[in-house]
Design brief:
Layout: H1 3-23, H2 32-36, H3 48-66, H4 82-87
Helix pairs in contact: 1-3
């Protein structure tokens, strides 16, 4: 990942963190490990390694806040394999047509 892409990801994660705090899903203190790094997306002159550390720290905090001990990971298929996922029928979003029923395009 290029540095500018990393900084963009950093900015997006900061936005998500702010949304967590605004919704009450997290307290500002939950992000102290991130703030201790003193690297923000606007720290453009910081080395890439510092932004990587900030992104990893922030992503880890957000991941911890997004899951609970009671929450279990639900497998995609019966056996939880990707083969099951490939065989599973796609669910249509309201207003979309099912691609299996769509008329084939001609050139």
């Amino acid at each position: 990942m290029k540095k500018n892409e990393l900084i963009h990801l950093h900015a997006l994660l900061v936005r998500v963190a702010r949304d967590y705090v605004a919704r009450g899903d997290a307290s500002p203190e939950a992000f102290e490990p991130y703030h201790e790094l003193d690297v923000t997306p606007m720290s453009l002159r910081e080395p890439r390694a510092n932004h990587e550390a900030a992104v990893r720290t922030l992503a880890g905090i957000l991941a911890d806040l997004s899951t609970t001990e009671d929450e279990a990971v639900v497998p995609v298929g019966a056996s939880g394999t990707t083969a099951d996922a490939a065989r599973a029928p796609a669910t249509a979003v309201e207003g979309e047509t099912n691609p299996e029923n769509a008329t084939p395009r001609t050139r």
